[in-house]
DNA sequence: TGATGTATATGCTCCAAGCATATATTTTTT
DNA sequence: AAAAAATATATGCTTGGAGCATATACATCA
């Protein structure tokens, strides 16, 4: 029973953090829903294909195509043909898209940092260590890794535990 | 920069946990989206009004009314008139709704427990302690508390940090 | 070369979500 | 006490994102 309570607390915290994250990110995105994640994913993996994006976002194929259509119409992303596979599309951010991506990531960062501010430096280190251990236990496939990291600021994530687990 | 990395890890973990939670919960609900949370909230607060439910789910008013319509049509919930305020609706689960609610909560519990299984007992205690501290720092209003706890198993949550923070 | 599999695109339909508005009840103001 | 404002719910209307089915192009394998 004591364990159930811990699970409640951890689950509630995860929901609350995820709510904040998504709210902050979506506020800087052109539309609600998966657009913010799509932008940061393309930003991190220039040349990403629609199919990989689809799997990272857990969306249907047509839904992903339409989402990309809208990002392109908004001037945030562009389609190129992939050099290695002529069926595939290589997605890239436009300069405006890069700006939006940065705005999303820094909004996310700010919200997260303020939520974590109640912890002391030692507590934060300890919490992060345990979080990394949990994260390593969760990663399964590479697609799943993209999904988990869909709102991460990769430039700040040297030595990422998700990458470490995949390798 | 090291701090940014910790925030990445914690944010990614929160997203991953929230994904799992919502997936497990929605799998037992009659429809995707906020239905699972609505069922567990009504289960925990019998007599809940549509307006309070609306705020907990962060939905529009008409959206909430329609959601309740569907739950009623599915035989999971029922509308009664609130004894103290004759404008308001008092929502309650039917026996079938109670069954569904239990299924949602135990699916959520199972998924969460397996994700936490990589931690030792001491690590889990430590992680839970820090999570509770973070959670207390996040709670603002009573509506927000309902939102945070929207998928909690209240029967297992004696001494809830959210309640403690509100009081 | 032919057959199967994979990546993308698009017409179609559906349905959840929001807006505007209407009604009933409660609370506040005059 | 009557009038005005606020609150709770309900519903017609529209929109737009999401999935299904299908079509096309390219790739891979037999």
Could you explain how this protein is built, in words?
2 copies of one chain form a homodimer. With 167 residues, chain A is mostly helical. Helices cover 66% and strands 6% of the residues of chain A. Chain A is built from 8 helices and 2 strands, in the order H-H-H-H-E-E-H-H-H-H. Chain A is globular, with a radius of gyration of 17 Å. The interface between A and B is large, with 57 and 57 residues. The first copy, chain A, binds a DNA duplex (30 and 30 nucleotides) through residues 31, 33, 49-51, 59-63, 65-67, 69-70, 82, 85-89.
CATH topology of chain A: Arc Repressor Mutant, subunit A
Count structural domains of chain A.
1
The residue fraction in helices of chain A comes out at 55-70%
The CATH homology group name of chain A? Winged helix-like DNA-binding domain superfamily/Winged helix DNA-binding domain
The spatial strand order of the largest sheet of chain A comes to 1-2
Q: Helix- and strand-based class of chain A?
A: mainly alpha
Class of chain A, according to the CATH hierarchy?
Mainly Alpha
Termini separation of chain A comes to: 37 Å
> Quick check: average pLDDT of chain A?
93
Instruction: Detail the poorly predicted runs of chain A.
Output: none
| Assembly annotation | homodimer
Whole-angstrom Rg of chain A: 17 Å
Number of helices of chain A: 8
How many individual β-strands of chain A?
2
Instruction: Assign the CATH architecture of chain A.
Output: Orthogonal Bundle
Largest interface chains and counts: A-B, 57 and 57 residues
Largest sheet of chain A: 2 strands, antiparallel
Range of strand content of chain A: 5-15%
